Amino acid sequence: MEPLKNIEASLRLVQSQIESSFEKYSQSNKVKNVDLPLLVAVSKLMPVHRISDVYKMGQLHFGENYIKELHNKALELESLAGIKWHFIGQIQTNKIFKLIKTKNLYMIQSIDSFETAMHVNNALLKHSFKNVNVLIQVIPLILLSNRNIIAFKPLFQLKIS
After folding, report:
1. Burial class (CB in 10 A: 0-12, 13-18, 19+), 56
2. Is there a cis peptide before residue 110, judged by omega within 30 degrees of 0?
3. Residue 42 phi/psi, 5° resolution?
4. What are phi and psi of 102, to 5 degrees?
5. I need a labelling partner for 109 at 20 to 30 A (CA). Which of 26, 62, 69, 132 fits?
6. Low-confidence ranges of the chain (pLDDT < 70)
7. pLDDT tens-place string over residues 32-50
8. What is the pLDDT of residue 36?
9. Hey, how many other C-beta atoms are within 10 angstroms of the C-beta on 99?
10. Which secondary-structure segment (H or E) carries 79?
């Protein structure tokens, strides 16, 4: 396992690079009042004590790609105020309930089908859970017309009333 001081140095370097790149981008594109991009530390295969160490360095967002691992780590670390968990793996519909009842679940990255979106939505409604941030995966279907215009076909549409 990598020494803690190396992890901290790497974390600080990545944070610094994000801030520097974002500042340059913001200045050149006249972007104002926008939050920095979010750094999600993927904690796959990391023991909970190491996640706790990285949390103490100021990192609040952690990603896991297995629901069971995410759920177990979130339970063990639920006392860490402000920790936010991201699910970054493929969702199996039979494990959605376990996913949405995960402590401090902040975001599901990403939903790749209408059916999965509906399963997540129905589980949240059925069990009266809080809202969860979700990223929808959009796969563009490239259609070339006689003018070489690229069009995107939506995977599905959501109606909001």
Report:
1. exposed
2. yes
3. -80, 120
4. -65, 130
5. 26
6. 1-2, 139-161
7. 888 888 999 999 889 999 9
8. 86
9. 21
10. none
Q: Are the beta carbons of 105 and 85 closer than 8 angstroms?
A: yes
Which pair of structure tokens corresponds to residue 74? 């979130």
Place of tokens 């968990």: 85
CA-to-CA dists, residue 122 to 25, 41, 75, 107, angstroms:
40, 29, 23, 16
Rounded CA gap, 101 and 130, in Å? Answer: 9
Let me know: does 72 contact 50? Beta carbons within 8 Å: no
Distance CA 2, CA 14 (A): 16
Pick the CATH number of 38-138 from 3.30.1120.10, 3.40.720.10, 3.20.20.10, 3.30.230.10: 3.20.20.10
